[in-house]
Amino acid sequence: MKSSLQNLHRNIFSLVWTGVRRNYDNLDDNIAKHLGETDANHPVGIHLSRMFSEVFKRHSRDEADRLFIVGTKSTTPSLQKVSSRPVTPWFFSRVFLVLAVSFVMLMALLFVFKSNKVIPGLIFIGSLTVPLSLLMMFFEINVYQNISIRQTMVIFLVGGILSLIVTMTFYMILPIRTEISIESALIVGIVEELAKCVVIILFINSYKANYIFNGVLIGACIGAGFSVFESSGYVSEYGLATIFTRSFQAIGTHTIWAAIIGGAVILGKARKKPFTAKDFVTKPKFYVFLLIAICLHTFWDWDIPDTGIGVSLFQEFIDIVIGWFLIFVMIDAGLREVKTLQGQQIIIHRSKRKKLVNKR
């Protein structure tokens, strides 16, 4: 009787898991196909194992160098040469490894050799490790290769600091309460995500970015800069132990939320035109993702009353899962966009060719 019940439980679990897996495999594509103008009969597959399949393979120095030779007039490929194959970033993992090893070495200097002089370096590298690694991943994912590493670093530094300035300006205007409550968490979420959104729009308009992958990269740059400077600042307020928690928590916070907003800005504006104040309130493809990012930030900051660390960690886990799912939706939509634009260009090219033939 006991063995038959166990078999029944296994069969039920297997059935449920199979259904969940199949639906999840298609869910990001089902959402993404409604964000663009692509044919729903041509899905774009996003699979974690395939996306990160290059991480554990050997790559030469020349391969790494080629990743950075992009974004100039001579190195930006034409639209027809842009790859629409599933993205497979790998260099970001090397960046993470170097920074993580550096962080461990600095910890050894602090705790083994008792050298307090390494504390500033420990704070900086700890704050930088995850955001910069994520930033490099989005840099690799930008298949259009139309934003250089120099531009990326400028957006990261200037955009990150500027978003903090806008945030503090909003805080001066709005009455922010310091007590722990859902209302306070909501206000913080609104203020910080709106501040990053304003700066993201500013850079997207100034760079004349028109593609989803461009918006995601610009957003990630600004979110990563915001995350690095904010985490460094928290150490002075809450002590050195803060860096050990915020360093790994950064995998699901500002960089991801800002990347989602950056992609949403591109979805919300007319192609080859700047994002306007009217787009801010009239384009559901934009403000729905902005509202989701605000909700993710609010849920992350909200300390549910009468709960312990377990509930807080579970909140963060849910937040990270939802945030990364939306990133995969943006990647899916970005690849669909490539196929759509390439298809449109082919059609235009053929029509011009027919006109030329008729003239002859």
Automatic annotation (TrEMBL):
Cell membrane in keyword set: no
Record has Membrane as a keyword: yes
Keyword annotations of the record: Membrane, Transmembrane, Transmembrane helix
One protein family per Pfam: PrsW-protease
GO MF terms, alphabetically ordered: peptidase activity
Domain of life from the UniProt record: Bacteria
Transmembrane segments: 91-113, 119-141, 153-173, 185-204, 211-229, 249-268, 280-300, 312-331
The protein, known as: Protease PrsW
Organism: Lentilactobacillus parabuchneri
